[in-house]
Amino acid sequence: MAVRLISAGVGIVIGVSILIFDNVYVYCAAISFLSAVAVWELTRAIKCDRFPLLRWASVIFGGVFPIAIVIKPLKFLSVPMAMMYVLLMAVIMLRSHKEVKFEQVLACGCAGGLLPVSLSCIVLLRYSTYGDPLGIFTVLYLLFCAWFGDSGAYFVGTFLGKHKLCPLISPKKTVEGLIGGIVTVGIVSALTVLIFNSFVFTEHQMNYFVLVPLSMVSSLVGVVGDLSASVIKREYDVKDFGNIMPGHGGVIDRFDSVIFVAPFLYIAMTYLGNFIYA
Asked: Which of 18, 98, 125, 157 has the fewest CB atoms within 10 Å, measured from its CB?
């Protein structure tokens, strides 16, 4: 328990420090690190550590690609980098076709491509057309939608849970916990909007009637991410994806919901921005 608390405390200090800096380059460095570690964890979990060239190509790309996605002057490199990555994976497959199967190349390729894109959406949302004027609120809103859903589901499910949600995938998850997580996220997002409207956004106000329902839908999306990670762990008989946070697991264990919620909210706010902030 002590290790778990210390690990959580260190993670909170680092996370709060990044939010306080609120700088695109600091965000980018953090996302690049998380992305590279996440790719490393996933490729290990799916047994691709037997193919070091394939794995390292994915990890390096996962760490470098967010730079091209996030930093505006370098965005013109994102498509060429993606094309070069696909070409590199094909060359590795041709070179090692006797040992490496197509499904392994595809799995590593998806890990190295999808994880950095999903995690980069955290920063893209912060500096999008409607994210930028909302400042740090957008990052907090995203993280709250993903993480408070897990916390609410855990506590409600522990005390009130009776009906299993997906017993073969995650035996401890319950329907009552799912509902509790969604309601918790709705309450937390309403309080967050109230605080920012009262003390930060004095000239313009954010719309409760869009942000609160959107947060509750995002919570459901986060559950899909959580269950998807559970399926992978069960299929490959993995307890945790990593141990970067002792007592909590790896990056994917902590960010499985965020990986799904971030791109969902980025797309949602792209279309709903006019209704959120006026």
From this structure: 98
Q: Is 273 exposed, middle or buried (0-12, 13-18, 19+ CB in 10 A)?
A: middle
Question: What digits encode the pLDDT tens for the residues 84-117?
Answer: 999 999 999 998 888 888 988 999 999 999 999 9
Residue 12 and residue 80 in one domain: yes
Q: Provide the H-helix boundaries in the chain.
A: 2-21, 24-45, 52-70, 78-95, 102-126, 131-134, 136-160, 175-199, 208-235, 251-276
85, two tokens: 């990555």
Query: Are 236 and 47 contacting, i.e. CB atoms less than 8 angstroms apart?
Result: yes
105 HSE (CA, 13 A, CB side): 18
Residue 206 and residue 185 in one domain: yes
Question: In terms of domains, do 65 and 152 share one?
Answer: no
Domain ends where: 127, 154, 171? 127
Residue 121 and residue 179 in one domain: no
pTM above 0.85, yes or no: yes
Under DSSP, the state recorded for 98 is T
Cβ distance 230 to 170 under 8 Å? yes
Which residues constitute the domain of residue 159? 135-278
